[in-house]
Amino acid sequence: MVNTIYTDENGEYLKNNPSWHTEDSAWKATQINTLLKRNNLHPKTIAEIGCGAGEILNQLHANLPNDVNLTGYDISIDAIHKAKEREKERLTFKHENFLETKDTFDLLLMMDVFEHVDDYLGFLKQCNNKATNTIFHIPLDITVMGLLTNSIMERRKSLAHLHYFTKDTAIATLADSGFEIVDFFYTEWFFDFKERRKSIGSKVLYLIRKALYKINKDFAVKMFGGVSLIVLTK
């Protein structure tokens, strides 16, 4: 079961996130393309579960070959209303529970999704036969800084995160759900989005993160975060 904030008739999630995170979509699509190229994958059918406003698929539509068909699924009518504005040939959006479809795909995208699902292990197990390959993007909320500043609770309130992960627990979760890990890497959102470093404190933190990240990525991520994890599975 997914957090009911997405199906709330009052549009609670939309009020808290009016852009539905479309400002991150081009960047996320770039991470997906990088992972596909690294593994020489050329899917012809792509589905995204929890597609939101549909901009990730819209970006992929513009950059993948014109024989690729893309379908987005979301349980939020607010999200699908936004996504429908992006529909075109080979790009469709459905206000449906993806788990109820009998369709299968070459590639399934789950970009920042299962941390919102109550029974996330059961949900993942139901998804592991829906596509030949699946790409997950997973926020790494458990960090030393996150625990000290209690930012996890802020993410719970504003983004409706119900579960929190490190790199190791995220990968173990996918493996325990029946997915075979093929490839993964950190997606360095803190380094890529300059506009998020406006205050002096955030600029100082950026320099500390950058220096430590060059020495030991895993340790830097555990201490300060600033990245997510993208994982290719089969």
Structure description:
Helix content is 41%, strand content 18%. It has one domain (4-142, 149-193, 227-233): Vaccinia Virus protein VP39 (Rossmann fold). It is α/β, with parallel strands linked by helices and 234 residues long.
Return the string of H and E elements.
Answer: HHEHEHEEHEHHHEHHHE
Task: Summarize the main sheet.
Answer: 7 strands, mixed
Biggest β-sheet: strands ordered side by side in the sheet: 3-2-1-4-5-7-6
Count up the domains: 1
Mean pLDDT: 89
The CATH superfamily is: Vaccinia Virus protein VP39
Helix/strand structural class: alpha/beta
CATH architecture: 3-Layer(aba) Sandwich
Whole-angstrom Rg: 17 Å
- Give the count of helical stretches: 11
- Give the proportion of residues in helices: 40-55%
> How many DSSP E strands?
7
Described by the principal axes of the CA atoms, the overall outline is globular
Question: What features would you highlight for this structure?
Answer:
7-stranded mixed beta sheet; Rossmann fold; alpha/beta; globular; 11 helices; 234 residues
